[in-house]
Amino acid sequence: MTTDTSHYGGLRFMRLGMLALAAGMLFGVIGGFQFLFPEFLQELLFTKTRPLHVSLVISSIFLLAIGGIYFYLPRQCRLPLFSVKAVNLHYWGFVVTGLTIIGCYLSGRFGGREYFEFPPVLSIPIFLTWILFGVNYFCTARQDKEPWPVYYWMWGTGIVFFFITYAESHLWLIPYFRENMVREIIVQWKSYGALTGSWNMLAYGTALYLATRISGCEKYSRSRLAFSLYFLGLFNLMFGWAHHTYFVPSEPWIRTFAYFVSMTELFIFGKIIWDWRASLEDWQKNRHCNAYRFLMAADVWVFVNLGLALVISVPAFNLFTHGTHITVAHAMGTTIGINIMILLASVFYVIREELPNEIHARCSSQLRTGFWLANISLAVFFVALILAGIGKGVYDGTSFQEMMTGIRPFLFAFTLSGVTMMIGFWVILWHGFRLMGQILAPVRVAEPEPA
Amino acid sequence: MSDAARHGQQVFQDKNCIACHQFYGLGGYMGPDLTNVISTRGEAYSRAFIVAGTARMPNFELTDDEVSAVVAYLGFVDQTGTYPPKDYQILWTGNVAQADDPR
């Protein structure tokens, strides 16, 4: 129990992230049913549920990652935040902008591009709040006079590249880009690929931070190998985006270069297999630790998703998988299996550190049930999407309706597993939200009453 | 890009059509890819779908001007290339050479 409130902002971000994730999953399930039954919830068209789902889930990744950074720096890294007021401003800026975007989607006011479908003027407050975050982060982290561990670099890289790639994703506002379809689509997907890399940097930095803390072993964040993998990730962030646009008519060298860059990830793939045995031994030692359980799940999903990513990055395979549900399996598998698992590990690590063991031990069986329900459902979800993708990949372009009828059993499995996955995650999120509220409770009591 | 196509591009964004449709295989999966819909199905066919909707696609109640603008935009997109690739060669490296790659 503490009267120190410097970590209060971080916890609020994390709780809001859990709410956004719970709501985002609900819209995803509604969208799944609309895929099967287009007349389902006609008032809430798929053109609304899809952006609501995507925006809320992506927001939850940012909120949980940002919350962790705001929490860990003052609380565990012993670096007082440069400005606590800026954290509060960031939080309320995020809330107001987020609610405005949700309102725009619900009322059918679009105007942006895929993934940022809201009116582009709303990107201005997103930029401004991100500036607050960036300044606060770098001014706080620079107080550390020791050489930075790799996770500081990863968090900082994620912040800087968000600025660059988010700005780039708005180049369509300039007629030079907007009025040339090929130029625009290449720039748009270049920015999206790298933007994903920027939030991966925030999440993977969090994973390395947790691995270092849980194991008590500094080699995870200071070894030459850790920095090598960081630079490989950075290289892929900057240049590995073009597998999205292999078949947009652009210069062939872009395709060849992107193919080469994607294949460098084989190194990471090999490293995971190499470390597998040691990981299993650690799993035995830490099997009662909720955070470790989520990190291990993320490790398994990294392996599965990287395998799929490597296959679809080969142009000869991409020819058949591009524009099919296999791409969705890749996107959702990485978002849920890797990013969300890592960030839930962060939530339960914070809870384990801040609350007495007996408080969260009371819900450990429910958490275990939620964990397995979510992961088994995700496995079914992933396979169903791959099978649906194969169905679409062999579609000869004659009747779209016939193709959709053919893959309907897989879409049915995808939707049902989406429902059970949502239930599993809701159980986890409910306990995470509730327990994190208990950490905040003593802070509220300790705050002085106004005179 | 013509004024009509520019207007159609804006309508396409305002109705968030990309949530369900794709260009060059990029976009949503509820409806078909529209990259070459004008050259493969024709303007009249496309116009009929936009005006009436389908079981999967609502009628967005666009004005005649807006419908013409969207058709003009789809025509503009159609001229930029072919998707899915029709004339290609798979190389031993796993790479693909397309006939319409810029030379």
Write a structural description:
The complex is a heterodimer of chains A (451) and B (103). With 451 residues, chain A is mainly alpha-helical. Chain A contains 18 helices and no strands. The mean pLDDT of chain A is 87. Chain B is mostly helical and 103 residues long. Chain B has one domain (3-78): Cytochrome Bc1 Complex, Chain D, domain 2 (Orthogonal Bundle), CATH 1.10.760. Chain B is built from four helices and four strands, in the order αββαααββ. Chain B has helices spanning 3-14, 37-41, 43-52, 64-78, and strands at 22-23, 26-27, 88-90, 96-98. In chain B, the strands form two sheets. Chain B has a two-stranded antiparallel ribbon. A two-stranded antiparallel sheet of chain B has the order 3-4. The two termini of chain B are 23 Å apart. The chains are: A mainly alpha (451), B mainly alpha (103). At the A-B interface, helix 2, helix 7, helix 10 and helix 13 of A face helix 1, strand 1, strand 2 and strand 4 of B.
Comma- or semicolon-separated keywords:
heterodimer, A: 451 residues, mainly alpha, 18 helices, 78% helix, globular, B: 103 residues, Cytochrome Bc1 Complex, Chain D, domain 2, two-stranded antiparallel ribbon, two-stranded antiparallel sheet, 4 helices, 4 strands, 41% helix, elongated
